[in-house]
Amino acid sequence: MNGNKKSIIIIGGGLAGLSAGCYALMNRYNVRIFEHAAIPGGVCTSWKTDDYMIDGCIHWLMGHRPGTSIYEIYKELGIVDAARFLDAKSYINFVDARTGNQFELTADYESTKDRLMAISPEDKNTIEEFLQACVAMAELQIPIGGSSQKKSTLDRVRGLWQKRKILKYLFKYHLPLKEYVKKIKNKWVQDIIVNLFLQDMTTLFSMLMLGYLFKNQLGIVEGGSIRFVLPIEKRLKNLGGKITYNATVEKILVENNTAVGVKLADGSVYRSDIVISAADLHATLYNMLNGKYVGKRFEYMFKNWKMFSPLMLVSFGVKGDIKRYPPVNVLFLKEPFKIGNTRIDRLLVRDYSYDKVMNPGGRTVIQAEIETEYDYWMELRGNEQAYYKEKDNVAHKVLDKLEDFYPGIKAKVETIDVATPYTFLRYTRNYRGAFEGWLMTGETIKMPVPKTLYGLKNFYLAGQWVEPGGGVPTAVASGRRIIKKICYDDKKEFVTKLP
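The chain above was modelled as a monomer; its predicted structure follows.
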């Protein structure tokens, strides 16, 4: 890095790191990114297995059409021009093999409302109020860090007035989904609402997602998550940025309580004026910085805040015709089964039959996403033979259950791919396999995560771990916001020029 420009080293080439790199380059900083894995994207990725494209990330993409703040970021990062977005016409299709019940929650607001009320007339008022809150929440824009001009008191008051319809919902529905559904009388409607997202997440998040669905602002990336990532990498390189893969940062170099560069696992050293970690927060604080700058706030978070549960992704490459379902389904099983000590009574299943770009030629991928135990899989990993035997065992258990929903699928499976919490740790280094960091809860909404560390100069944090709730829009917005903060600290105007 040379010239009169300040240099920035970014740890992590996931969405936040790539985004931060692009915006730093737009604002005339020299940029170099070091990424632990062999490809960009971090958790947001896809991979090939025996000619089948396995996707590991995007279920739904918020703000894929003009009219939202996050869409502007997609434009600025070059994603809009390169990726093709499909409208999500369905949020989740619920199928209960125990009772025969089925309910598809679609983008048609009136139809969704009428069908829910038909199931449970006794919950009419609750259903109507819930859906009205969803529509109201759709007006809530994801904060991206816009103008660098300081807002006046009058501007802030105007902003609050414009959000007055939303504020009452923010206070009323911050409780977890599993608590909210206790007010619903009908068991089937309870099952639908509590499975809109993770049960420990605030109800507000599910309302936001459904609001975007009803507003036609929830989409799908054709061709898989990697097609969302590669345009950002291209933009970074076109702007003059450098990214090095298979480059694990071992230590952040500190001199006189100032970050001055990084040391890689191979022993090589790179210096810079500023360091941004868009990597795993625990590894950053406790390993790369030796626990020196953790502070009471971060200690409290790691002790008390809930993280996203570790996942297994069990994917089946299927050749030939099978029963078709919408892209995302919650399948309630006739009989539960166990993985380690965890009882599995439902499967979140992604059906990629809609996407012929990912898997052409009569192929599709059916993928089950399962919450599982981190310690169970890490202990198994100590015995390689036992680890792979259990992966195979789980895959066949899942396939047995899928046969109830996809009759004849067993005979048409050509390949099986199983990712465990160890897989996530190996490729992304996410602490305890928490693929999106902290859950969005009533507490985490109220307590912003610091983006700098007390006592350490020229160092910043970005990414899902400093934005509770995680997700694609949050990650790319985080990269933008951190560069805006750096520009402010450097007393320079933040710009988003497009080459």
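The chain is about 35% helix and 25% strand.
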